[in-house]
Amino acid sequence: MSNMDNYNKNDNNNKKDDDNNRILLVDDEVDITMVYTMGLQDNGFKVDAFNDPLQALSNFKSGIYSLVLIDYKMPKMNGFELYQEIRKVDTKVKVCFITAFDVYHGDIKKEFQDSSDSMRQEGKEDSDLKCIIQKPIDLDELVKRIKEELNS
Amino acid sequence: MKKWHTGKTNIIILASVAAVVLAVSIFSYQYSVLTSNRIVDIASGEVRSNTRIEAHDISQILTNKLQTVGALLQTLADSPAIHNNEYKRADTVINTRQNSSTDFTDFYMWLNKDGKINWISNINQSAYQKYKGADLSYRPYFIIPKQTHTVYYSSLIESNDKIPRLYISYPVLNKTGTSNNQGRGILTGVVVTSIRLGTLGNFLKDQLYPQFNSTIGLLDRKGTILYTTGTQQYAGENIFGNKFQSVLASSLHSSDSKNLLDDLIRDSLQGNTGSKDIPINDKVNTIAYQPVTVNGKDFLILYISAQHNVASDVRALIIQQQYFTILMVAVIGGVAFIIAFLVFSWNKRLETIVKVRTGELKIANDSLAESNQQLALSNKQLALANQQLKIHDKMQNEFINIASHEMKTPTQAILGYSKLIQRHPEKRDEMIEAISRNASRLQRLTSDILDVTRIETGSLRLNLEKFDLNEVISDIVNDYRNEIERSDSDVKLIHQGGNEIIRIEGDKNRLTQVISNLVGNAVKFTTQGSITIKAEIEKEEEQDKDNALVSIKDTGSGIDPEIMPRLFTKFVAKSNAGTGLGLFISKSIIEAHGGKIWALNNPSLDGNGRSMGATFTFNIFLSKSRDKVTH
User: Fold this and answer.
1) Of B565, B591, B569, nearest to B581 (Cα)?
2) pTM, whole model, 2 decimals?
3) Which of B394, B395, B399, B405 is best to mutate for the A interface (most A CBs within 10 A)?
4) ipTM at complex level
5) Per-domain boundaries in chain A
């Protein structure tokens, strides 16, 4: 467990090296952040992982990350709320949601759509939400999806 | 309001009926008056023309009669016996004349040239001796023919025998030897005939139209009354004389009538023909006058007077008609009134019926409103049920989502580590441990979800057996003591009163699950202090209801007051390592045993309001034999 924490910290230290493949990962489950971080790092990504969304938000800075990977269901602040807060700071960063929900899948898209519409009305551009990643996912598949999203 | 309105309407209708009846009466009266006037006019016209015709006819008859008598007298004057003064023959001739007109004339008389009686017709010897040679030369019927040598028609003359008579006289002229004397011969005598006024009156009376109720009057040219119908008491009186005028004044109340009558008489005495309506004794009389002209001379004036009896008859009839009409109108009005009254009372009855019906309708309406209300209530309840159903549906979805999330998370970990373990052999042990941890978490979750499913589908079965509660608690406490020791925690686990045997009837495995869950939670949330587990028997008045009370008291962080009301529902009180289903399952198991479970935060001991941990308690009947366990 302690080794894995170090693993994360090492990653945090490198966060300014290459902005093109730096990813912010937020999930309340330690095992999930651990697994996803390792999977992404193995493929050359730099990952900043947080288990607390509020902590993640307070550490967020515009222009650092090329992609934000957020778990939808979290205590204190859910993924969508975190996404909206992040959007206030950085309008460009790409976003992928991770969800284990089945029923709420459609609801997330709708919620995102409504939010995008209101943003457009405010003159802010936003891309449609295409990136919803269903848990559980094979780590190779995860990397593939992230790459696709980054290249889109 | 409505009643007043109806009453007013009734009065108006009744007044209308009365007005119509009155109007019809007035109209009918006016019309009958008009009709009666017209009928009176027609009748009066009839009377007038009849009167005039009668006057004309009778005057003509009288003229003819007088001319006939005149002619007889002329033939007498021209007879040779008279001319030649042959007394013996003359006697027969004169008697013959009298016999031929005995119905009219009283007698024929022959006077000599000095006005002395030669012969009187049909006279007996003694009378003849008495009157023979009597001097009548003073009489106009001798003087005037003697002077004029023409026929003379006298006015009324009071004769020597006091009988009023008219006289007609004819001169006897000897024309032989006097042919140059312009037809005038030498008067040798006068022949005279007389007509008694009584005879004349009877004659005239016989001439009156029997069907025409009229009276007759006859004046001579001087206005002397010769004859009036009914009485001879005025004969010989002048019409302008005191005696007759006073009679007129008493019978003619109006001076207009008197004037009219005077004018009429004056006009008639001048030889004119005419007629006039004169009211006498309140009745209109038509008086027609016509001169009786004999040999071109107005000798007498005839008056025919007829009362307008028809008018009064007509009036009487019309009045009768009016009475009848008024009676009819009154009857019709009465009938109308009765009908109106019937209609009103019928209306009133109808109104009452309508009122009753309205009342019934109102009651029906009210009950309808009531049932509507009930329907609304049912709808509300239905809406509520629907809402609850929706909530239930939503909760079901929520459960699936959360369960799905809870299951997929350890699955993701297992899958991830399994992949990573190949790439990172140096972290093999850590990852195997992580996989094992996630696998057991998944196992717990699976087991709990299965329990929830059993509970929610009502298929949770209890395997009842009798066992000692303290024995079960003791085993659980021992397990957790080992765990606590392994984790280097200094929390004390106390089993209070563990020596007492509390035998209960229940599902041993399920109750073990409940107690283990509650102790496990206490251990999870208690970092220091103690956890005290106690089982005791609660005695009730009914022995059947004796139950065991099990409490688990910790000195941990206590229960968040926010989640306290929903503490025993699914996924509410979820710890990091827990499934969030334990308390829900425990509650369901206890309730399946007929018991109750509850939780309280311990009262603060340090006075700072800080929670001193929580106590979970459940009770359970000692004996389950008396009621069914399954639900």
Assistant:
1) B569
2) 0.47
3) B405
4) 0.80
5) 2-151
